[in-house]
Amino acid sequence: MNYVLAAIAGVWMADGLALLVVPRQVITRVREVLAVAPSMVRWELLAVGLGAILLIETEGFRYQPLWLVAGSAMVIKGLFLVLGPERWRHVLLEWCLRREDLDYRFWGLGLCALALLLLKALGWLGNH
What gap in Å lies between CA 38 and CA 82, rounded to an integer? Predict the structure, then answer.
């Protein structure tokens, strides 16, 4: 299961770096995908599953409260985007996709930090 957690960290790092380096291009692509295939939001079920894994499998890890918050946020966000009322989802997605580039860069920095902390908690970075 450590490899799944490391994969979560890898996705966080990739997303974070993309948002740090080219936030406008990332958001433009997300907008295009949602315009062409709005059903892509259903992939959020994967976020629900990975969030549940993060909640369950990080018991006893360093930074335990952080993993509880991150896993819970993944599950709640994923369930809302899949099951929430269409109108509310649309409003939330529009708000998220109309942020300034600097906002996305802060999110990217946060994702990179989460990735590094998860790898450290797994014992894959630094001395453990």
Answer: 11
Cα(30)–Cα(1) distance, integer angstroms: 30
Please state, in angstroms and rounded to a whole number, the distance separating the CA atoms of residues 120 and 58. 12
- Summarised one tens digit per residue, pLDDT across range 41-78 is 889 999 999 999 999 999 999 999 999 999 999 999 99
Q: Of 89, 66, 95, 60, nearest to 8 (Cα)?
A: 66
- Summary count for the chain: helices (H), strands (E): 6, 0
Rama region for 60: left / alpha / beta (φ>0; ψ in -120 to 50; rest)? left
Alpha-carbon gap, residue 105 to 122, rounded angstroms? 26
Residue 128: is its pLDDT beyond 80? no
Cα–Cα dist 128/123, whole Å: 5
